[in-house]
Amino acid sequence: MIPRAITPALIALALAACTGGEPGDNASDATLNEQQRAAMEHRAPDGEKVRAERWMSIFRSPDAVLAAAADMGYQSHPYTEGRESFGTGYSPEQTLPEGDSPVKITTAFRVVGVGPEQITDIAFTFDIKGDFDAPKAKDALAIPRRIIAGFLGRFEVGPGDEIADALRNLTSAEASQYGVLLNVDAVPGATDSEKRLIVTISRATAPTD
Question: 99-141: per-residue pLDDT in tens?
Fold first, then answer.
């Protein structure tokens, strides 16, 4: 029978002594993320580490990226594993919104990487045409912002105010956070009723892991 004076913390220390290390100090811990490690160590997670890990998980998870894009309506071509590099090519285009709208948006998506689990770039294109000032145009014009926010939301991150504002206003912008570059390139069309947005999400440095 364990005396009441011996707490769970003391038991953990005793077990660590038997294995030759501190609690949580073993090879398998390398696979834990910050939230898992914090829970195991009975402490609050480091918010900066959590956000950085969430952003990096995008570039290490091609299957999850393609699944997130599918949630946004994109039917991307799968990449081929075992190659030194890969690219899905742009997905078949989808035109939004469905039904009657004074503005129509044709959009596509692609992923590029240097190998399995090493994505370098994700890109979305939005070709916007119509009467931007029409009373019912507002909902259609919000589609690029909603798609980017929805895609990133699958990884529990967001584009940030600067990029969100650019998507809302159909203007160019660039921002960086947690080793990630986000860019919106707003390209004017031949007339005032046309505009093309190219949104890229890229690793700030080439993957080495």
Answer: 999 999 999 999 988 876 789 999 999 999 999 999 999 999 9
* Cα–Cα distance, 124 to 185 (Å, whole number): 11
For CA atoms 78, 80, 84, 89, the dihedral sign is: negative
Residue-by-residue DSSP string for 8-76: HHHHHHHHHHHHTS-TT-SGGGGG--HHHHHHHTTS---HHHHHHHHHHHHHT-HHHHHHHHHHTT--P
Name the helix (H) or strand (E) containing 112: strand 103-113
Contact 163, 185 (CB under 8 A): no
How far is residue 158's CA from residue 151's CA, in Å, rounded to a whole number? 9
β-bridge mates for residue 199, sequence order: 124, 184
pTM, rounded to two decimals:
0.80
> Would you say residue 144 has pLDDT above 50?
yes
The stretch 142-167 carries a mean pLDDT of: 98
In terms of Cα–Cα distance, which of 75, 66, 69, 138 is closest to 102? Answer: 138
- DSSP assignment letter at 5: T
Give me 169's structure tokens. 């206003």
